[in-house]
């Protein structure tokens, strides 16, 4: 199955994955080289699980889960299989995030530090609560076979909006957390003196922003959207056009597909797949 601007897609995806891995490397290097490492002992090494797991889970894994439907080489997989992968990656991200919160609350309680006093903690907890809601509603609406298709269709714009909203909020929360930690966590110097640790961790913050920007770019390109099941079926049953070109997104005829679950129309004109409103 051909994809419009496939090379640009590949470049964006490869850059996002690279930047994501470099961010994970940066957070691990911060924790092991500049900080106390990782442990579960009620001390600072326990706190360190918090940035490691939020960056790996709530940011990196959530970003991958969000773009997984867009990978053209998965378009031949069944939609149900892709739903399991999308939901599974989000559940894994959720587990990482919950453990990261347990680590920071446990650290605060054992050091007698108050809980939930900062803007970072308020926005962060709100994001995690919304994420939980998104997961539960996502499973109930798109995985439970009994859910009526009109509900699936009606909920999809909200699902996409709230998914991206939570993802962006997670990134904003991480930036606040990083700044806070640099303000009160540097050992022998102050943030304003730009010690190597502060510069290094500022770069981590920039990498996280770049990762988020690319993921949101990928997932908001209409031409990179997974075609509806009907388009996929119609293409696989008519492999060649009369002019001898392989049928893909270069179709010149107009195809109108009715989505059986959403009851919406997917129109393909002049090689462009219009917003299909697909919900199955
Ligand atoms: C504390 C959430 C990322 C640094 C907290 C607390 C929450 C939270 C709810 C309050 C814990 C308590 O009061 O006992 C999140 C979420 C994140 C995230 C959802 C996802 C992106 C980060 C990152 C850092 C960080 C990347 C970088 C080091 C801190 C610090 C505290 C904290 C220093 C203790 C001070 C405070 O309560 O604000 N976080 N956090 N957080 N977090 Fe995060
Ligand atoms: C699509 C986010 C959980 C089912 C999407 C999209 C986002 C998103 C941003 C748009 C993707 C695109 O346009 O290519 C999230 C987040 C979740 C979550 C952040 C977890 C908190 C779930 C769950 C299910 C689900 C548990 C259940 C299977 C779907 C479906 C689509 C979708 C069916 C439409 C894909 C398409 O037709 O192209 N989700 N989602 N989501 N999500 Fe989720």
TrEMBL record:
The chain crosses the membrane at residues 9-32, 52-72, 84-105, 125-146, 158-178, 198-219. It catalyses: Fe(3+)(out) + L-ascorbate(in) = monodehydro-L-ascorbate radical(in) + Fe(2+)(out) + H(+); Cu(2+)(out) + L-ascorbate(in) = Cu(+)(out) + monodehydro-L-ascorbate radical(in) + H(+); monodehydro-L-ascorbate radical(out) + L-ascorbate(in) = monodehydro-L-ascorbate radical(in) + L-ascorbate(out). This is Plasma membrane ascorbate-dependent reductase CYBRD1. Pfam families: Cytochrom_B561. The keyword Plastid does not apply. GO terms for molecular function: metal ion binding; transmembrane ascorbate ferrireductase activity. Its EC number is 7.2.1.3. PANTHER family: CYTOCHROME B561-RELATED, PLASMA MEMBRANE ASCORBATE-DEPENDENT REDUCTASE CYBRD1. Residues 238-280 are annotated as: Disordered. One of its GO terms (cellular component) is lysosomal membrane. The lineage of its organism: Eukaryota, Metazoa, Chordata, Craniata, Vertebrata. It is a multi-pass membrane protein. Keywords: Cell membrane, Electron transport, Heme, Iron, Membrane, Metal-binding, Oxidoreductase, Translocase, Transmembrane, Transmembrane helix, Transport. It comes from the Eukaryota. Coiled coil: none annotated. It is found in: Apical cell membrane. Its cofactor is heme b. Residues 271-280 have a biased composition (Basic and acidic residues). Residues 15-220 form the Cytochrome b561 domain. InterPro entries: CYB561/CYBRD1-like, Cyt_b561/ferric_Rdtase_TM. Homodimer.
């Amino acid at each position: 199955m051909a994809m419009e601007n496939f090379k640009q897609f590949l470049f964006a995806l490869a850059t996002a994955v690279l930047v994501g891995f470099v961010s994970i490397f940066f957070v691990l290097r911060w924790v092991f080289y500049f900080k106390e490492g990782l442990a579960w002992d009620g001390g600072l090494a326990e706190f360190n699980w918090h940035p490691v797991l939020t960056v790996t889970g709530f940011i990196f894994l959530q970003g991958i889960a969000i773009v997984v439907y867009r990978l053209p080489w998965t378009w031949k997989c069944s939609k149900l299989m892709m739903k399991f992968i999308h939901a599974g990656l989000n559940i894994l991200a959720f587990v990482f995030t919950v453990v990261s919160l347990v680590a920071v609350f446990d650290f605060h309680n054992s050091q007698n530090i108050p809980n939930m006093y900062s803007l970072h903690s308020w926005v962060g907890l709100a994001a995690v609560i919304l994420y939980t809601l998104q997961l539960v509603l996502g499973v109930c609406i798109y995985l439970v076979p009994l859910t009526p298709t009109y509900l699936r269709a009606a909920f999809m714009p909200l699902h996409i909006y709230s998914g991206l909203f939570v993802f962006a909020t997670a990134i904003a929360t991480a930036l606040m957390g990083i700044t806070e930690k640099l303000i009160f966590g540097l050992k022998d110097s102050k943030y304003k003196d730009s010690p190597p640790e502060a510069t290094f961790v500022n770069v981590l913050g920039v990498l996280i922003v770049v990762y988020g920007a690319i993921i949101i770019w990928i997932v908001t390109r209409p031409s990179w959207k997974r075609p509806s099941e009907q388009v996929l079926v119609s293409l696989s049953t008519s492999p060649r056009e009369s002019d001898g070109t392989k049928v893909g997104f270069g179709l010149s005829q107009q195809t109108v597909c009715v989505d059986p679950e959403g009851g919406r129309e997917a129109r393909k004109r002049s090689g462009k797949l219009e917003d299909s409103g697909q919900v199955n």
